[in-house]
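Known limitations

Structure tokens in this collection are predictions and should be treated as such. Users comparing against experimental data should check residue numbering before alignment. To illustrate the layout, the record for Probable malate:quinone oxidoreductase is reproduced below. The input appears on top and the generated tokens appear beneath it.
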Amino acid sequence: MSEPVDVVLIGGGVMSATLGTLLSQLQPDWKIEVYERLDDVALESSNAWNNAGTGHAALCELNYMPAAKDGSVDPARAVGINEQFQLSRQLWSSLVERGILDEPSTFINSTPHMTFVRGEKDVAYLKRRYESLRQQPLFDGIEFSTDSRVINQWAPLLMQKRLKSDEPFAATRVPAGTDVDFGALSRQMFDKLEQSGAHVIRNREVTNLTRQKDGTWLVKYRNRIGRTPGRTRARFVFVGAGGWAIKLLQRSGIPEIKGYGVFPIGGQWLKTSNPELVAQHRAKVYSQASVGAPPMSVPHLDTRVVDGETSLLFGPFATFSPKFLKQGKITDIVAQVRPGNLWPMLKVAIDNPSLISYLVRELLKNKDRKVASLREFMPTAESADWELLNAGQRAQVMKKDPDKGGVLQFGTEVVSSADGSIAGLLGASPGASTAVAIMLNLLKSCFPDRIAEWEPQLRELIPSYGTALNPHPEAAASTLARTAEALALKA
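Generated tokens:
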């Protein structure tokens, strides 16, 4: 067999695109191969219609800053998520300046981020959240109002039929929010990777991963056209295959994956391109999740810009499929079961009856009931203006817990071998938005002997690399301004 390649990236989504781009800048002499099982890259979770494109910076997502039992709110996690998104903005800015990414409006656009709540309890909570966040430099510019006239200026569709209501309501708004087309972003990065010499191979499905005596990995695959098998050796493997990552990491045999499982949750949107409605709503507006609902199902009414066309999405509404990907296999959920993860997965089912009840309620909703949910946001919504659109599959992490036996984890987690020769990403939101932070941490853990020599180049790409912005107001303000200018973002 020929000499091993330096890096094999499995999966053509934003994670592999980000890691491949970083490595191509840090080690342009390395041979990189990307294997995508579908006809093109970014067709699964990174596809614009399969995710909300929010650019998660904790500006509007309440689940990153829940109220404690005593009613207090801690901004630490929200600040942490925002710090991670600033790393993404800085890298994208550098890639635009270097000509690796196209005109910024092809993948990122200014879209205010809002939160809208009703009822005295939630209004009081939102006020406390606002008072806490307004003191954080990264949240500079956040606004709060209980005035129906002000909220009507921010988002008219929310306030129609509510202007004279006695019901308490409140909203926050951050003009500096963004809408991100992660599909376009991924495709542009892969295009540049190919131009720089990487091999991005489509219609290639990886079937097995085996560690060799020399420390390399034997990557077995089959080409979906012609079904011809093949194999490659690689010094490093990253599994960025969405829900299928669990399957490939299990096949690799690394002990670190024992005890992990994933639970697939699908979604649907209500979508409209009616220009009269689109013109009245320029924001991403989040609210509180239903009791028992996973964070990824927080209802929100979003402006989306995809391929230059602006539309509105509302949802997501949960669906269920045993597949780990939209184009997965119905046996996925069963095929992952191992002796080491069976009990943790059973404990998750036992300990989360509210999640099961929520999924059942969601599955029973027809379009009329989904439009009724939309009317809680937009009182004047008409069913004829909206169509149902299937979103992507999200594979939520289940894993062992020393106290509970097993826990369901919302978020992302990198699982890597002890020697750092293979790593994979499990989980979902806010993954795409924080892809840069996730991949920087992966570089540290998997390439500890090289990270020191890479640091000067990383600081050129990401000026705040290694330091936090929020404790330094001037640095935070200058970074936000610089990336806004580079990405042509206007509040």
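For this record: The mean pLDDT is 93. The chain has one domain: 5-473. Please report discrepancies through the issue tracker.
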